[in-house]
Amino acid sequence: MLKTAFKQAQRWELIDRNPALLATPPRVSSKEIEPPESEAVKRVIIAAANSQNPENALIFRLLAATGCRRAEICGLRWTDFNLGQCKVTLRRSVVQVETDLIEKDTKTHQQRTVTLDPGTIKLLKIHHQTMIQQAQLFEVELAPDAYVFANSPDGLAPIAPDRLSQAWRRLADREGVDARLHDLRHLQA
Predict the structure, then answer these.
(1) Is a pLDDT exceeding 80 seen at residue 31?
(2) Which helix (H) or strand (E) holds 132?
């Protein structure tokens, strides 16, 4: 704003040069990132497993294991996994625009493949079977490219990223864990 104001003052010949162009911004000190303690994260995951929505435990585990963003977890489809090779490729994300959930590419516009531990793979296989059974209960078929965490029995409607943050905050507060959901990215890093 100052740069523009001084530029106009130069045009009106009120000043010879724009002092805003000579100024340098102050250094911004970067705060050292401290990831949450793994035991604290584990407590929240256990609390999620025992909650009304136990799939959140798997979501939080995947966030901690992959370092991905919550929008990328919401964008995961079963076709992104190679369970035999213990790998997942993060290709897309889901964002909320007003009331609509929109699928788009990742924040960095790049896909990346991450190796998962055997325990997480085992839980993913169980989750997949559970989704197939739920689809059958509703007399629909789980779509081959279904979202891993879906808001519909056929798996074609993703969950909202804000839902994950709210669930994390509620469980973390209950467990006395002072960490944001985004902080799980730093565990993997």
Answers:
(1) no
(2) helix 118-137
pTM of the model: 0.80
d(CA 116, CA 76): 14
User: Which of 4, 3, 80, 67 has the alpha carbon at shortest distance from 41?
Assistant: 67
- Strand-by-strand arrangement of the 81-82 sheet: 81-82, 87-90, 112-115
Nearest one of 153, 148, 160, 150 to 121, comparing CA atoms: 148
Percentage helix, strand, coil, to 5, in the chain?
50, 15, 40
Compute φ and ψ for 99, nearest 5 degrees. Answer: -100, 0
pLDDT tens track for 112-166:
999 999 999 999 999 999 999 999 999 999 999 999 999 999 999 999 999 999 9
